[in-house]
Amino acid sequence: MPQPKPFSAVNPTLPGFQRSLKKLPPEARSLADQAILDLMLPEIPGKYGFKKLGGYRNPNVFTVMLGGNHAYKMSMEIDNGVAVLRRVGTHRKLDENP
């Protein structure tokens, strides 16, 4: 089920995000590219499991899952209505350092 989103724009330009994006294997890269496009839709598609991570208040950190088996994850912080993409990588790596 689609979720309303707490942002109106997406910023994928942080150097750390771009570095992690380039390290992805081709199939994960295409999933990440599609997720970035889908984050610009009026509502976030339910398949991404958009959620706020506990323990992060300043900044608030959110994640989306990528792929049918959720092997990859993308993190973002919301700053003045803009989703600033932070990292993308394996689920395990982002659980250690979102």
Question: Could you please describe the fold and organization of this structure?
Answer:
The protein has 98 residues and is an alpha+beta fold. The chain contains three helices and seven strands. The longest helix has 13 residues, at 26-38.
Key words describing this protein structure:
single chain, 98 residues, alpha+beta, 5-stranded mixed sheet, globular, two-stranded antiparallel sheet, 33% strand, 3 helices
Sequence of strands across the biggest β-sheet: 2-7-6-5-4
Tally of helical runs: 3
Straight-line N-to-C gap:
25 Å
Question: Biggest sheet, in brief?
Answer: 5 strands, mixed
User: Which secondary-structure class do the elements indicate?
Assistant: alpha+beta
Portion in strands: 25-35%
The share of residues in helices is 25-40%
Summarize the structure.
With 98 residues, the protein is an alpha+beta fold. It has helices spanning 15-22, 26-38, 91-96, and strands at 3-4, 9-11, 43-44, 51-52, 61-66, 72-79, 82-90. Strand 6 (72-79) and strand 7 form a beta hairpin.
List the helices and strands and how they pair.
Layout: E1 3-4, E2 9-11, H1 15-22, H2 26-38, E3 43-44, E4 51-52, E5 61-66, E6 72-79, E7 82-90, H3 91-96
